């Protein structure tokens, strides 16, 4: 009798382990099917930042952002509440340096590849306030590729060719659209550390199809990637 109990418990234990492994396999497969464009090279954090692709110098890159109308409206309402109604002074339009625009999730596309539930927010201090008050919709944008990983665990440590964050700067008060990039290039040419830059055009679809938002300066976030790439001691 005792032998039969031991055998039964052993079989149950083996069955439990097998089902647990099978569940883990299904979870991995489900993540892959949910995010079909995900590859180690393009989306994982197990690769070095790919400067040749992200900051290509010989052409203007194109970025497409798809965001739900609800999320886009949330961002607009947040701006209006804190900076005024746009096109002139309004309630809350003080342009406080303590104000940080809210994050919302979007999908991001580049060269036919999609990144999922990427964090997106507007950025800037006086430049954001001034641009917004002039009624100009071309606002600077910060992207964080794993900002929403807690809400979407399958996207943990999502990266854009090794980069966690990117900045799309609107070239505020620069009719040439070149000042930020040329300045950064000159710094590096003289041996001074500076974030990498490139030119890009941005299209945003917030419910009515892709809309052209203009030429932006793509600027590297000053974090570990800058330290690792520009300081010999890492």
Brief overview, please?
The chain is an alpha+beta fold and 234 residues long. The chain is 35% helix and 22% strand. It has a seven-stranded mixed barrel with strand order 1-2-3-4-5-7-6.
Characterise the protein shown here:
The chain has 234 residues and is an alpha+beta fold. It has two domains: 1-34; 39-230, no CATH class. The chain is 35% helix and 22% strand. It contains seven helices and seven strands.
Top keywords for this entry?
234 residues, alpha+beta, 2 domains, seven-stranded mixed beta barrel, 7 helices, disordered N terminus
List the helices and strands and how they pair.
Blueprint: H1 2-34, H2 40-43, H3 51-54, E1 61-66, H4 69-83, E2 104-110, E3 113-122, H5 126-133, E4 141-144, E5 165-169, H6 179-189, E6 197-205, E7 211-220, H7 224-230
Parallel strand pairs: 1-6
Antiparallel strand pairs: 1-2, 2-3, 3-4, 4-5, 5-7, 6-7
